Request: fold
Amino acid sequence: MLELLAARFRAVAWVMDRWQAMVNLVLFLVLGEFAIRIGYQEWQAGRFDIVQVLASGKNLIGLVVILARMPHREIEMGYLPQFVALFAFFSGESLIKAPGVATIPQLYPVGKALLCLGIVVVALALLSINTSFGILIARREVRTGGLFRFVRHPMYAGELLKRAGVLLMNACWQNVVAIVVSSVFYILRAVCEERFLERDDEYREYRQRVRYWFCPGLF
Reply:
């Protein structure tokens, strides 16, 4: 009986030690399948252009980062901040990206350039944050190199640029609503993260060195 209980405790301990790695593997498989499926659909439709090339590269970086990321040190226990974080992360799926949907021809190339720039910024931010990447709000190793030398939330800045580009390429009222809501939630996520991380001495020191959130000299 005691041996059975000991075996069960060891099994529970094994799971508790590795649950974050298991979550990473599940996310890698789910998001990887989604990225491959979307990329294949764009290829089949003849729309695999520079945007899709950049997006594929960014997705590959993101998948590697998810698989390699380190366990968090402490996680935000509030339901509302985590809801904000998850909503912001998945809000891009609400955007209408079909070509020719209420598109203003004069704005299309500008929008495409902004979208490409946003994808590049997100990819560089992923490389900068590396194994400290997280979907939920949590305390991890503070990254201060790469794009984090200039702003504290470069990935969210890239996401905002992407949304502005999608709106100019596909100007319709559905995208206006979706992008406004999505952008607000990304800003709220940054606020929630700042409040949670302000208890961390290392992050407070970093915050004193890097003043701006999204854009150097502006915000």
